[in-house]
Write a structure and sequence with these properties.
Elements: H1 2-13, E1 19-28, E2 40-41, E3 43-56, E4 61-66, E5 75-78, H2 92-104, E6 112-118, H3 128-144, H4 150-164, H5 172-179, E7 184-189, E8 194-199, E9 205-211, H6 219-237, H7 251-257, H8 264-288, H9 292-308, H10 315-326, E10 330-335, E11 343-349, H11 353-368, E12 373-375, E13 384-385
Helix pairs in contact: 2-3, 2-4, 3-4, 3-5, 4-5, 6-8, 8-9, 10-11
Bound molecules: alpha-D-galactopyranose.
Amino acid sequence: MLQGMYEKFESLFDVKAEVGAFAPGRINLIGEHTDYNGGYVFPAAIELGTYGLASQRTDRTICLYSNNFEDIGIVSFTLDELVYNDQHDWANYPKGVVKYLNEQFDNIDHGFNILIEGNIPNGASLSSSASIELLTGWLIKRLFNLELERLQLIKLGQVVENKFMGVNSGIMDQFIIGMGKAEHALLLDTATLDFEYVPAKFGDYVISIMNTNKRRSLTESKYNERRSECEMALSQLQQKLEVDSLGELSLTEFDTYKSLISDDVIRRRAKHAISENERTKLAHKALTENDFEQFGELLNASHKSLKDDYEVTGIELDTLAETAQQVDGVLGARMTGAGFAGCAIALVDKQRIQRLEDEVSKAYIEKIGYAPSFYHVGISDGVKSL
Ligand code: GLA
């Protein structure tokens, strides 16, 4: 892919690319919708990701092109017009990154060209947007020699998502894309940002990624709705409890105080966040002890909680995960990412991958009417120069 990109870059912009970078996508093993509740998450960066090339310009124009959105063509704007624009579509992500970097660093005083191409399926909950954010930040860091730490870039990516794109997401996606390590998952405490790399070795088992191939819709508004429901739950619990986040509570404590939450739906949202946080800590323990069966059971329990208490699955994700859970040789399966559509993961015996794909495809086509896709990819480093 890269060779073709260098040629395309020259033909688009009439200059050679000066710097190149790669930013991965991610899966989340477990710890879903816990990152904006001060809880733990357990993601891993994947080898599917976004490649980018860049060169400086002498004027103040920024030209962006994506091989994935050829019909949109070159999107251009100047350093003086860094505002969200619906028509700029995908390019709003890099634009947001430019805006906040530009506010932080005086030496970004001329424009640049960027060409990107990614192999993360779009809208599949594998974080193609955070991948573009971190990639753009990394390319600009290289072009302008910015003194920008990974953690700053991660936080900046989250600001783009929250303030520029209007999605009140947590920090998980940017964090794993910025800090990922090949062959490792990362356990992150989102309350403190302390983290630990854990070898992602599953013995005879591998993670299979299963894509619903359902395009996400309304995800952003539902996502923001869940987040405010958790905030509401927290503020009601705070009538009696001195806590800053749901992540500080154990399930036992929650059971004692849950009657403070008047609404049943809101109570279930909190129950998910708190139980999922406990499952994530247990899953970390299980993985470090090579207890893959226990790990698999926690994946199943996570899916059930996301389905019944958090209500972010939907028939497509349920069909994938619940069918996979029944396949011989599968230890566990669950949706991954924000939910509503996108992907699920399954922990499957290496010898049974084909069987998983056949059985899940059959059930999925029967129920949903079109086929799912499957990916088997390695675990990658975080954003890096090429
Ligand atoms: C999206 C968000 C993350 C996280 C997950 C759910 O991927 O960007 O911050 O909240 O959903 O776990």
